[in-house]
Write a structure and sequence with these properties.
Length: about 45
């Protein structure tokens, strides 16, 4: 017997994540979590 919880399709909250939304599609057997990229340009010629 397993203690796994099978979640239904929908949007879920991911605590302490940069992007808190997680989308689960049970029909496609697919979950999607998108995290934004942050690009920073630093000047190196001091």
């Amino acid at each position: 017997m397993s203690n796994r919880v099978i979640m239904p399709s929908g949007d879920f909250i991911v605590p302490r994540a940069l992007q808190p939304a997680f989308e689960l599609d049970r029909e496609k057997n697919q979950g999607t979590y998108l995290d934004p990229n942050v690009w920073v340009l630093h000047q190196t010629d001091l």
